[in-house]
Design brief:
- The protein contains 12 helices and 7 strands.
- The model has no long low-confidence stretch (mean pLDDT 93).
- It is globular, with a radius of gyration of 19 Å.
- Helix 2 packs across helix 3 and helix 4 crosses helix 6.
- The chain has a 7-stranded mixed β-sheet.
- The chain is α/β, with parallel strands linked by helices.
- The longest helix has 21 residues.
């Protein structure tokens, strides 16, 4: 309800919840590993994988670790979209320093084996010689375009994108806009293009509130959830079958799905709201999924 609500949210996450602290290497390491996994899916499932491939990301976020990782793997040009500018010089410098430290120690090669040595060397050199560059300007040097705006208004040519990905973002799209963005992905993709989406299906409030389970938000009716949902980071509560149906409605073929499920005893602790009682038990147990 405050003006510049995303700015206040950033302060809250920086100094209260710790959401913007990536000082420890664990989270950085997992995101770099995710870069390799997204890249592997592109190489495995494209019928004509390109050495210099074009990329579209939805949800730049605070830490553009994966776009940088894909650049290191050979992406020729990357467009990454967010509805507000979340990139900040302090958090961006942390991930650059992490990349440089991992490159110098040799650990980057083990986590991101597809990274090209000449691109890693260029990133390390750029990070040391251009410390004054802001995040957007620095990313432009890597041919990564961090755009604030609606991806539906990208203006990119049809069939111009080889690889579309998102990581922990689609769970924030309401069903209507989700269908629209999948239709736009289909316009931008060619016949050999691949999409790779890592989707969080768990109740994200449970990450901070240990008194509830990751299935807690399935208790609430749609009417009540409108009051409880966080408008800055809304959760759509869709199940993995809903995402798969949205893909297929946009004429994509789902070629791989890797679901991570929760515990049956945690799901049994809640009484499902009527709108979730028609889903299969397996669908309800999903917490995360890789959908390709």
């Amino acid at each position: 309800m405050l003006p510049q609500s995303h700015r206040w949210n950033a302060l809250l996450q920086s100094y209260v919840t710790g959401g913007l602290r990536i000082q420890q290497f664990g989270e950085f390491r997992s995101k770099v590993a995710a870069s390799q996994r997204h890249f592997d899916y592109y190489r495995e499932y494209s019928t004509d994988p390109q050495e210099a491939f074009t990329v579209l990301e939805v949800g730049t976020g605070w830490f553009p670790i994966i776009p940088i990782g894909l650049h290191l793997c050979g992406a020729s040009e990357i467009w990454t979209y967010d509805i507000v500018r979340l990139l900040r010089p302090d958090t961006f410098r942390i991930i650059l320093d992490h990349y440089c430290q991992f490159a110098r120690s040799g650990e980057l090669r083990s986590i991101l084996p597809a990274a090209r040595e000449e691109r890693v060397a260029w990133l390390v050199d750029l990070a040391s010689t251009h410390r004054g560059l802001g995040p957007v300007e620095f990313l432009e040097r890597l041919n990564i375009h961090a755009i604030v705006g609606d991806v539906l208004q990208s203006g990119l040519a049809g069939g111009s994108i080889d690889f579309v990905f998102s990581h922990g973002v689609l769970e924030h799209f309401p069903p209507g806009p989700l269908a629209e963005v999948f239709a736009e992905f289909r316009r931008l993709c060619g016949e050999a293009s691949v999409m790779s989406h890592y989707i969080g299906i768990a109740d994200q409030f449970a990450a901070r509130d240990k008194s509830i389970t990751p299935f807690n938000y399935l208790r609430y009716s749609a009417r009540l959830w409108r009051w409880l949902n966080n408008p800055l980071i809304p959760q759509n509560r869709l199940r993995i079958s809903d995402y798969q149906r949205a893909c297929e409605d946009a004429t994509f073929q789902v070629v791989s799905r890797d679901d991570i499920n929760g515990l049956e005893q945690d799901l049994a602790k809640i009484q499902l709201a009527p709108e979730f009682r028609s889903y299969s038990r397996e669908d309800l147990l999903g917490l995360f999924s890789w959908l390709i």
